[in-house]
User: What shape does this take?
Amino acid sequence: MTALDTAGAAVRPAPAAAVRGGTLVVYRWEAAKLVRQVRTRLVVLACVLAPFLFVAALKMQTTTPQDTLFGRWVHDSGFAVPLVVLGFAGQWALPALTSVVAGDIFACEDRHGTWRTILTRSRSRGQIFAGKTLAALTYGVVVTVLLGASSLVAGVLMVGHQPLVGLSGTLLAPGHATALVLASWASVLPPVLAFTGLGLLLSVAGRNGALGIGGPVVIGLLMQLGSMADLPVPVRTLLLTTPFGAWHGLFTDPPFRGPLLWGAAVSAGYLVLCVGGAYALLRRRDITGG
Amino acid sequence: MRRTLALAVTALALLGAAGCDTTGVTRDRVNAAVAPTFANLYVLQQQLRGRKVAVASVKARADCARGTGPNASTRGAGDDWTCTLTWFNAGPAITASANYQLHVQANGCYTADGDGPSDLNGTPTLTASDGANVTNPLWRFDGCFDLS
Amino acid sequence: MADASSEAPAVAAAVEARGLARRFDGAVAVAGLDLTVGPGRVHGLVGPNGAGKTTLLSMLLGLVRPDAGTLRLFGRTHGEHGARARDGVAGFVEAPRFYPYLTGRANLELLAGLDGGDARSRIASALEVSGLGDAAKAKVGGYSVGMRQRLGIAASLLRDPRLLILDEPTSGLDPAGMRDVAALVRRLAGDGVAVLLSSHDMDEVEGLCDDVTIMHAGRAAFDGTMAELRDRAPAPEFLLTTSDDEKALDVATSSDGLVVAREADGEALSVRAARERLDEYVIALGRAGIAVRTLALRTSALKSLFFDLTGGGPADAATAAEPTLEKVPG
Assistant: This one.
């Protein structure tokens, strides 16, 4: 998945004078603040536990999830579990999970009135912005990786590592299935980062945690609704929820990778626009009042 | 800010309306996706029943369409797609056929629901050659295809 | 031109601002203001609410961008030097704000971490000097205004500043706290730190500051040393009640350097006189058989000058025990 790697690396933002070692200080500082928050800890815990609870619930019944790809195979192969989680929760859960942090990381300073406290120390606005952005992006990655890894482990441990029936009816050996599952989860990192950027933009623009946290979820749901209609392909490509389904192409025979590349590119575009917009807003803001 | 948003939504809506006919879901793509999937699953099913079949010898063909008669169409997502699969069963000269009802989604993924013959795709489970009760891979299957 | 304000040729002034201006939504907050603060000087920024003090201090700290003018802190500008312009500069604007769910100490540790360097090692001494004591262990959410002020001062001291910018540092403090702040300011100035503090109370500033800038509607109505301001000050104003106000008025007309008028409510007399003239007047009253019942300082000399310069008059002072600053436009 080299295309994804380079796309992932390219989306890391570097506002002009900010990356000077000072940003790293802010990044570590923000990460320390995040780790201390109850909210973030709960979300991380949920990501690790939920897949296990999900599989346990599945095993208690004989029916299978009908509305998701690979749902019918959850009793037959553990590798279906992470794909069901990805398909079922990917479109709304991942944007929501990353927005918990991204949507509030700037707005919390407005809420506490602490902008004037932290902007009058030894870090520039650019460094503070970059540090917070990187912390939020890191959190989005962590949450995605944890959810994916946990659902894979839950599936393999609780259902087994039987071969998986792919989307073209071919049987995928356990090793191959594992690789494809990991690649699928990796392929949703770009849209997760893009939704993180969206949360950051709303957090800065709205100065309101509710807008930052709820906004990306609502936008994601609206986009999802939109993509249920027969949209022309260029429009569909520009929706940010489309990359969440690009992994389907990995499981067909022969696989098709176009959506993966397009998804990464569109996600990168959204991320750059959102982060750029957020920085532009913060740079020029006058800190007054309250 | 609000005006830009309104403009963007209107543009998208217009594009959507104008693109009524530019969906990525076409008959050719559906046919090309369903046929080999069915063939592979057929091989799998026969394998479960203890019979070895080579994929290359199945040569499955799919004929799918939306609706019938004057209302028939060949494009667009919907749950009214039907497919007739034909393939070579017991030998190069003997063709068999099966029917499926398809729900094709706008994102290029579909679910095929077996619609006869009943011994092929009529039951959700089948008894394997070793006596175990396993999922019948041909009863209902999913697939996806590239829209672009 | 810049060298004229520095103590020694090689040392840049702590603050060097020329022609600063800023509007908000069309209303002028600061207009064409010059400010110079030298090292080791305590500079008072006095003005009624709305005079533009907070906006000016915000511009110094880089929170608000000036529309026009130049601003240098130890020779550095925010535009060219970014965060480095704030090296050695610390302070707060309006009420200091912290994270309410953390303790005072944790907040300081957080800010020290943000600053880097050896800020962390100064936490203990900063807490001691600011007088927070055990309160540092409690969550800031439960702090009183005074405790928050002290924490703000502690947070500023973490940076080992050479320029300290304090916005109304004694507001919310009890008299003991005000004394502590005054002592701290004097000590820092003695160590060569430049202190710029704002206040709306001229009297508070008088005892503490070497230089003063009086602001009114965004402009400097006065800018110079405290000594120069005192020289310009008119006589202080006293409130006098006697056993016979009518006769007291007659006695007054025969003395000069003395302005006596009846108060609006007719209950007392207001006397404007220098100390010597006042003494003579009281003695003259006694000789005339008039007893002095109460004699109290109503408005100090400097306060009078302040009101003159900022458009509020003694008449305003007469309607309240404390000057009502809301009357002043801006």
